[in-house]
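User: Here's a structure from my thesis project, written as C-alpha cells. My advisor, Dr. K., wants to see whether a designed sequence matches the one we expressed. Can you design one independently, without my sequence as a hint?
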C-alpha cells in the first residue's frame, strides 16, 4: 500500500531527536478496530511482536500527551455519537455515545505529531506559501458569561489568561455528585473558542501561527488526504520540500493560496453544520415512532424557556414556556442567578446545570415536512 510517511527518532521520554519524511510502501500485517486493538493490548496473555509494538506505541503516546497538556493543550469536549443501523436495511435503530479508548488517544497523538512535524517542514521550505492551520487565542470577553455562571451556580473559578490556566481550571470544575458536570462545562467552554482556520503562511506573522487549543507553535493538516483538500495541498508541498516532485505554479502564489484557504474554511464550517444536522436527523430516524425518557442537563436559561443537553444522544433542544403549558404560563426570570420560575397552571423551577428528565420524540415540521427532535420536560 502506498503511503507518505513521517518517521521520528524518539527518546524514551518522548523527545523528538529527528524527523524525516518519505514516500513509502507499507505492508499491513493486520487491521484492527479501536476496540480490537485495545482488547489485545489489555490481554496479558498476548505477547506477540505486534501486540508488544502496540503497547510500546501506547506508552510513547501517553508521554506525548502529557507533554502537550503540560504545555497548555486543552482537553475540550464535543458530543460524539455512534448511529447503530439495522444490518440488512441500514436503517438507524439506535444512537449511543462513543466510548473513547486509550487506542483512540494513541492514534490521535501520533497524528498530531505528524501534523506538527509536517507543518514545520513545509514552512521551512515555503515560508510565504505553506498551507497551515491556526487557532487564535479567544478574547477573555468570550468567557465572561461562562465564568460568571460557574461562580454563581457552583462557586468555581474559570481562569482564562492562558490556555494552560484554562486547562487547569477546567480540570477543577467538578461536581462530586454529578460526574457528567465536567464534560458539560468542557462542551460549553468549547463554544467560547475562536474557530480554527486554514491560512497561507505569508499572510500572518509567526506568533499568529500558534494553535491555541493544541498549544503548538505551528500546525497543519496532513493525515487525512482522503477526506480533506487541505491535506492534499500539504502532501504536495511536502513532496516538493523533500525533492520528490515539483510544485505546481499555483501553490507558489500567495494570492491563490489565500483564495484556497478562504474556500476550504467556508467548506469546513459547512461540513461541521452538516455533521450536526445529520446527528439530529439520524437520532430522529432512530426514534421514529418511539418516545424515550432520558436524563438531560440545563445548559442555558432565558426568559421564555431553557436549553437541555441530552448526553446519551449528543443532542440539545429548547423547551419553551409554551411547551410547558398553554396558554403560556406566568414566569419570573432571574438573570443574575440563572433561574426561571414558572407559576400558574404549572409550577416549575429551572436553573442552570440542573439535571432533568426529558421526553424525546420526533415530529414533522409543518412548514418544511422535515422530521426533527422534540423535547418535553418530564420531571426535575
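Assistant: Designed independently from the structure alone:
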Amino acid at each position: 500500500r502506498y503511503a507518505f510517511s513521517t518517521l521520528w527518532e524518539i527518546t524514551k521520554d518522548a523527545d523528538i531527536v529527528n524527523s524525516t519524511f518519505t514516500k513509502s510502501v507499507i505492508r499491513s500485517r493486520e487491521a484492527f478496530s479501536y476496540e480490537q486493538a485495545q482488547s489485545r493490548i489489555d490481554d496479558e496473555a498476548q505477547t506477540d511482536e505486534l501486540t508488544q509494538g502496540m503497547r510500546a506505541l501506547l506508552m510513547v503516546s501517553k508521554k506525548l500527551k502529557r507533554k502537550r497538556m503540560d504545555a497548555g493543550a486543552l482537553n475540550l469536549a464535543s458530543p460524539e455519537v455512534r448511529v447503530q443501523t439495522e444490518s440488512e436495511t441500514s436503517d438507524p435503530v439506535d444512537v449511543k455515545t462513543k466510548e473513547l479508548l486509550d487506542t483512540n488517544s494513541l492514534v490521535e497523538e501520533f497524528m498530531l505529531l505528524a501534523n506538527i512535524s509536517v507543518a514545520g517542514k513545509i514552512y521551512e521550505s515555503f515560508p510565504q506559501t505553506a498551507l497551515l492551520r491556526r487557532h487564535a487565542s479567544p478574547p477573555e470577553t468570550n468567557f465572561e458569561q461562562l465564568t460568571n455562571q460557574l461562580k454563581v451556580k457552583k462557586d468555581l473559578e474559570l481562569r482564562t489568561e492562558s490556555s494552560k490556566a484554562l486547562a487547569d481550571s477546567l480540570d477543577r470544575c467538578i461536581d462530586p455528585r454529578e460526574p457528567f458536570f465536567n464534560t458539560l462545562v468542557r462542551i460549553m467552554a468549547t463554544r467560547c473558542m475562536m474557530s480554527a482556520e486554514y491560512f497561507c503562511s505569508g499572510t500572518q506573522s509567526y506568533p499568529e501561527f500558534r494553535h491555541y487549543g493544541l498549544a503548538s507553535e505551528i500546525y497543519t493538516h496532513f493525515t487525512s488526504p482522503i477526506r480533506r483538500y487541505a491535506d492534499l495541498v500539504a502532501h504536495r508541498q511536502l513532496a516538493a520540500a523533500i525533492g520528490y516532485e515539483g510544485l505546481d505554479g499555483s501553490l507558489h502564489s500567495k494570492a491563490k493560496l489565500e483564495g484556497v484557504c478562504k474556500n476550504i474554511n467556508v467548506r469546513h464550517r459547512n461540513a461541521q453544520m452538516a455533521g450536526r444536522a445529520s446527528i439530529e436527523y439520524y437520532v430522529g430516524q432512530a426514534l421514529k415512532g418511539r418516545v424515550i425518557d432520558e436524563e438531560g442537563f440545563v445548559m442555558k436559561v432565558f426568559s421564555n424557556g431553557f436549553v437541555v443537553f441530552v448526553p446519551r444522544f449528543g443532542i440539545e433542544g429548547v423547551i419553551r414556556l409554551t411547551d410547558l403549558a398553554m396558554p403560556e404560563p406566568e414566569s419570573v426570570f432571574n438573570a443574575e442567578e440563572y433561574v426561571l420560575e414558572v407559576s400558574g397552571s404549572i409550577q416549575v423551577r429551572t436553573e442552570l446545570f440542573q439535571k432533568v428528565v426529558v421526553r424525546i420524540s420526533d415530529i414533522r415540521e409543518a412548514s418544511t415536512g422535515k422530521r426533527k427532535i422534540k423535547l418535553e420536560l418530564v420531571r426535575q
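When you compare it with your expressed construct, this may help: The mean pLDDT is 92.
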